[in-house]
Design a protein that fits this description.
By secondary structure, this protein is an alpha+beta fold. It has 13 helices and seven strands.
């Protein structure tokens, strides 16, 4: 049983730790995801910028080597023309593969590799084209890219035409001049589109850099605010826990020193206070009163415990009326009550006890159309000697209460604090005012 309980507690503690740190873990993961996304976008844009430079240079080289081949007929220059032309053709093939439905990822990868792009950049080129081709700057760049397709096609046709004409012998000078002029026109047209392509990519790259920087700053600020909020929530929870713990300690302390039914101090608190008073040499005379209800058992037997509990509560309220601030009223158990009266002479203590007796005698308790008179046997111990022990003080008061019961109940009996018991008939006087 203890093993299962320990395992359950460990599991609960682990779950609590996970719940506590999970927001911070989510913060770190979110920030990492945003940073990773930013790096991926910037890396892909950089790959497009690098690819555009290679694409543009390769088309210009194709025009250059084809023009040399036109004038020299050197097969090596034609091979260089073909190698240069393969780069933009590969990029064009990749773009077509990405615009198909469904997208042909593998063909696009082959095309970008043919276009001379670094193998590690190919995935980024495909990802950016697929998911961001409608972004304004990239869309505009792609339009400039598409505009070069007819130029690329004509350049490819021109190459085959020149090779076929050279295969039949030297080309006449006017024909060479015409073909060279057309190649120059194609190069000019291509340069316009390539420049626009490069400009748009550059502007887009800078705009994306600014945008991603703003996103990272905003996300960092948001996450900092989230951390502050979560930390504040934890602090408030801790404060609430400490407040609840303090309240619970006070409640337990109150329960430990008070009677749950009447709200009066219990025997433990009563004896602790009495011990404290007895140990105080400068406190003066001390009055100690014990009170037993005479008819409580009859009420309990005839009307039930609910009636008995209500009687005890009403008696406790009556005992607290007019008491001095330093006095302590306690329920010691059952129908027994006790009062500690600091700085109180024997006569004043007897007077107070008599007042309580008369108040109880005049008190009428009603339950289910039945009325009861709540009388009490009251014992008073007057303690002037501070060497008296708690047990001796309680024994004196208890002996006086017992003697009051023997003499017929509903009376006050005063014990002097010595072995003999002395009966005192209290005279009417303002005892509480005198003590105040």
């Amino acid at each position: 049983m203890f093993g299962r309980t320990s395992t359950s507690m460990k599991g609960h503690s682990f779950l609590h730790v996970i719940k506590l740190v999970s927001p911070f873990v989510m913060v770190v993961l979110l920030q990492a995801a945003i940073a990773g996304f930013s790096l991926e976008v910037m890396s892909s844009v950089r790959a497009y910028v690098a690819g555009e430079a290679l694409w543009s240079r390769s088309q210009k080289n194709a025009v250059y080597f084809l023009n040399l081949y036109l004038h020299s007929g050197d097969p090596g220059q034609f091979a260089q023309y073909q190698a240069s032309l393969a780069v933009p053709i590969g990029d064009e093939f990749a773009r077509w593969a990405l615009e198909r439905d469904p997208v042909d990822i593998e063909s696009a990868r082959i095309g970008f590799l043919q276009g001379g792009n670094h193998p590690e950049d190919v995935s980024g080129l495909i990802w950016l084209y697929r998911y961001f081709n409608r972004v304004s700057f990239l869309q505009e760049a792609i339009q400039e890219w598409r505009a070069t397709d007819p130029i690329l096609l004509e350049l490819s046709v021109f190459g085959e035409l020149i090779r076929s004409e050279l295969a039949n012998g030297p080309i006449q000078d006017d024909r060479v001049q015409f073909l060279s002029s057309r190649l120059s026109e194609l190069n000019t047209q291509f340069t316009v589109h390539a420049k626009r392509f490069s400009t748009v990519l550059g502007e887009g790259s800078r705009a994306i850099k600014v945008m991603l920087t703003c996103i990272n700053v905003a996300s960092a600020a948001t996450l900092i605010l989230l951390l502050i909020w979560h930390t504040r929530r934890l602090v408030l929870q801790r404060q609430a826990f400490e407040t609840a713990l303090h309240a619970e300690k006070e409640r337990l302390a109150w329960q430990a020193s008070h009677d749950w039914l009447t709200g009066l101090s219990n025997r433990r608190a009563f004896e602790a206070r009495l011990q404290s008073e007895l140990e105080n040499p400068a406190a003066g005379a001390l009055g100690l009163i014990l009170l037993d209800l005479d008819q409580f058992k009859g009420v309990n037997d005839s009307c039930g415990h609910l009636a008995g509990d209500r009687l005890l509560r009403e008696v406790s309220r009556l005992l607290q009326q007019g008491r001095h601030a330093d006095d302590l009223v306690a329920r010691l158990g059952g129908d027994e009550f006790g009062l500690i009266l600091p700085r109180c002479s024997a006569f004043d203590a007897a007077d107070i006890a008599e007042r309580l007796r008369r108040s109880l005698e005049q008190f009428s308790f009603a339950w289910d159309d039945r009325c009861f008179v709540a009388t009490a046997s009251i014992g008073v111990a007057c303690i002037a000697d501070r060497n008296t022990t708690l047990e001796d003080a309680m024994r004196c008061a208890d002996a006086a209460c017992y003697r009051a019961k023997e003499k017929g109940r509903n009376r006050v009996q005063v014990e002097s604090g010595r072995p003999s018991v002395v009966a005192v008939t209290p005279q009417p006087r303002e005892a509480l005012a005198a003590r105040a």
